[in-house]
Amino acid sequence: MRRVRLGLAVLGLLTVIAGSGCSAEGGTPQLRETADRGFVAGDGTVEVLPVAERGDPVDIAGETLDGDPLDIADLRGGAVVLNVWGSWCAPCRAEAPDLVAAHDQLAGADVTFVGINTRDASTTNARAFEESFDIPYASIFDPDGDQLLNLRGRIPPNAIPSTLVVDRTGAVAVRVIGQVDGTTLVGLVEDILAEPPAGA
Q1: Rg of the chain taking only CA atoms, in angstroms
Q2: Nearest to residue 33, comparing CAs of 92, 76, 88?
Q3: Phi, psi of 62 (to 5 degrees)
Q4: Strands (E), the chain
Q5: Is the four-CA dihedral 142, 144, 148, 150 of positive or negative sign?
């Protein structure tokens, strides 16, 4: 009887060890490594923040994937769509066509799209992602997740992808945790652009 119990215990331990080498993402070692870091996909929950609850302007600045400086403080006066993504992220690939469509639909509006590419070890995969989906806007390269620290309290640091709509003052007006819908995003941006100027 003791031998049977011991055998079952060893079998159970081996099952746990084998299972720990896999991830919910499956696929490549890069995807498994990322999943092990605790990144999770949200459910696309949308939250619109009242003006009084938006807080201070966000502080996001860095180099793009092409090595150019980009500071969203320079974009104040218009809306900004900030999309946090990684080339390793399946929901990011799924939402990319929606983001491109929203960008194109809002062409001519007072809005700028900016990506934050996070946790890619080099720009190679990120650039390949952009080329694959014909991404028409720049992304800040953030391999260590430093930019996500600047968004503490606004989005969970492990929720990739996430999308923020920043109002004309630079404050976060809308957050979408998880994959974004393009049609919904266009409506949200149009609502923020239609808000009366601060102090009016």
Answers
A1: 20
A2: 88
A3: 175, -165
A4: 43-48, 61-63, 69-71, 79-85, 111-118, 139-142, 162-166, 172-178
A5: negative
Say how far apart CA 183 and CA 139 lie, in whole Å: 22
82, β-bridge pairs = 114, 164
Q: Which two tokens stand for residue 20?
A: 């720990």
Instruction: List residues bridging with 79 in a β-sheet.
Output: 111
Q: Which of 164, 100, 183 is nearest to 136 (CA)?
A: 100
Q: How high does pLDDT run on average in the chain?
A: 83
- pLDDT of 167 reads 98
- The token pair at 120 is 């890619």
Question: Encoding tokens for residue 74?
Answer: 């320079």
- Nearest one of 198, 186, 200 to 54, comparing CA atoms: 198
Q: Going from the first residue of the chain to its last (200 residues), give the mean pLDDT of each consecutive group of 10, the final group possibly shorter.
A: 42 36 32 41 86 94 97 97 97 98 97 97 96 98 92 88 97 96 98 84
Here the tokens at position 32 are 């498994």
Model pTM score: 0.80
pLDDT at 87: 97
Sign of the C-alpha dihedral computed for residues 136, 138, 139 and 141 taken in this order = positive
Task: Write the DSSP symbol of residue 169.
Answer: T
Q: At 86, which amino acid appears? A: G
